[in-house]
Write a structure and sequence with these properties.
Elements lengths: L2 H8 L7 H18 L7 H10 L5 E3 L6 E3 L5
Antiparallel strand pairs: 1-2
Length: 74
């Protein structure tokens, strides 16, 4: 059994299934979202996040397209 087959089997996925392939892609996308820092398109989104995360603040993103947490090093 190949490494890929073992990986799929460990996740309960069928190698030939398009539905399982989509489940895997969605799972990877969700993992990336959890790892990445928040980005807020609007001031209201950023304000809500700051209220939910006491002691955290936000600034306008460097490219000016939204807002990011202040602790990102910008």
């Amino acid at each position: 059994m190949s490494d890929w087959e073992e990986f799929c089997e460990s996740k309960g996925l069928n190698i030939g299934s398009e539905d399982d392939y989509n489940k895997l892609l969605n799972s990877l996308e969700d993992s990336l979202k959890k790892l990445s820092s928040p980005f807020f398109k609007t001031f209201e989104e950023a304000k809500y996040w700051a209220k939910e995360n006491i002691g955290k603040s936000f600034i306008r993103s460097p490219d000016g397209s939204g807002f990011v947490p202040k602790n990102r090093g910008f």
